[in-house]
Specification:
globular, 3 helices, 6-stranded mixed β-sheet, single chain, alpha/beta
Length: 112
């Protein structure tokens, strides 16, 4: 499994469409551990591009601070589970909490 996280300054970006880069963390689902990490520069932001691009990279989950409703629908259409409302933390901390079912999420900080 691969989990995508949008980053700004090495931590989760509160809006995925305005991030500097994405990190993809590879997961061993059985052991619930991170087995790999790769950074990717996103293509120019245009509607629908990021869900398709992340799907092509193999992402199955995206953890974000905020994401508009239409973007969430596009991720779902591309087979990527959306988790919104996460705090601006280091990606490994977020993923480890997600894998242990302890990830705390608040409100989606995006209103469009």
């Amino acid at each position: 499994m691969k989990i995508a996280i949008p980053l700004v300054g090495g931590k989760l970006s509160q809006h995925f469409g305005h991030c500097e880069e994405f990190v993809l963390l590879e997961i061993c689902a059985d052991a619930k551990t991170i087995t790999g990490k790769s950074l990717h520069q996103p293509p120019p932001h245009e509607p629908g591009m990021l869900p398709r691009w992340l799907n092509q990279l193999g992402a199955e989950v995206i953890i974000a601070g905020g994401m508009g409703r239409r973007a969430q629908e596009l991720f779902t259409e591309n087979g990527i589970k959306v988790v919104v409302g996460a705090a601006a933390e280091a990606p490994e901390k977020l993923v480890n909490a997600y894998l242990q079912n302890t990830l705390e999420v608040g409100e989606n900080c995006c209103d469009h």
